[in-house]
Amino acid sequence: MSGLIHLNQHIMQNESVTLNNGVKMPLLGLGVYAPSHNSEVQQAVEWALEAGCRLIDTASIYGNETEVAAAVQASGLPTTDVFITTKVWNTDQGYDSTLRAFDDSAGKLGRDVVDLYLIHWPVKQHRHDTWRALERLYTEGRVRAIGVSNHYPNHLDELLNQATITPAVNQIELSPYCYRPDVLDYCRSKGIQVEGYAPLVRGKKHDDPRLVAIAEGHQKSTFQVLIRWSMQQGAVTIPKSIHRERIQANFDVFDFELNTDETAMLNTCYDNTRIADDPDTID
């Protein structure tokens, strides 16, 4: 392993955010949504952990919680050193069914306590009961933090009107091309940590001349610039890859910063390019 990777391990283990309940969460992690490549997920997670990653983001619908657990075990790292997020899927929402879904996920992950449990999408008829179930899991100490995914301010307003615990995290799609400063500002005002997925836009923008110019100036790839932009928004960031070299490159982003002008320019790139659905237009 190169000295650079060793350096990244040292830096990354100290790069974290503190959630609103005091739990520390790594700033950069690995997303493992890979429906066509679940057989390769275990290897990808092992490579990420080798590169210094300590945050793995999975979900019940991804069908790879077992592979994530196997990778953590194979790494030899203490379980407590790896922050694991999973999520309750739409068809499992509701009070009792969410509790059952959590038991299933925790079993596959081989954990009595999961670091972060999220509501995957805001399912209108079950939002309140699903959140009540997450609050129960939290108060019983079965999860260290609870939160939501794909929630915009209208969904959060509704949730906070009923909740007794404020979500610790809101995981949303985030890139310069899907940049919603209103959502980020709302979450900051409520003490909710934003987590950004699909920062690389599945490669759709890798040759954007604006990105290319910034990347050349830093001697980095456009993908590394996108990851750095997301992190500098204050967002926990979870790029996805199943390729070893790309995984290593995705975590080699701690030795440069985007300046104010570069960030401001990227903040103007919004064109609503999305990988997932728009939370404002689905139910």
Main β sheet profile: 8 strands, parallel
Averaged pLDDT, please? 93
Gyration radius, rounded: 18 Å
Helix fraction, binned, reads 40-55%
Q: Which H/E pattern describes the elements?
A: HEEEHEHEHEHEHEHEHHEHH
What percentage of amino acids are in beta strands?
15-25%
> In the CATH scheme, what's the topology name?
TIM Barrel
First-last Cα distance: 47 Å
What is the level-2 CATH architecture name?
A: Alpha-Beta Barrel
Shape: globular
Record the strand order, biggest sheet.
3-4-5-6-7-8-9-10
Describe the model.
41% of the residues lie in helices and 15% in strands. It has 283 residues and is α/β, with parallel strands linked by helices. The longest helix has 15 residues.
Name its key features.
283 residues; alpha/beta; TIM Barrel; eight-stranded parallel beta sheet; two-stranded antiparallel sheet; 11 helices; 10 strands; 41% helix; 15% strand; disordered N terminus
Task: Please write out the topology.
Elements: H1 3-12, E1 16-18, E2 24-26, E3 30-31, H2 38-50, E4 55-57, H3 65-75, E5 83-88, H4 95-109, E6 114-119, H5 127-139, E7 143-149, H6 153-162, E8 169-173, H7 181-190, E9 193-197, H8 209-218, H9 222-232, E10 236-238, H10 244-250, H11 260-266
Parallel strand pairs: 3-4, 4-5, 5-6, 6-7, 7-8, 8-9, 9-10
Antiparallel strand pairs: 1-2
Helix pairs in contact: 2-3, 4-5, 8-9
Summarize the structure.
The protein has 283 residues and is an alpha/beta fold. The chain has helices at 3-12, 38-50, 65-75, 95-109, 127-139, 153-162, 181-190, 209-218, 222-232, 244-250, 260-266, and strands at 16-18, 24-26, 30-31, 55-57, 83-88, 114-119, 143-149, 169-173, 193-197, 236-238.
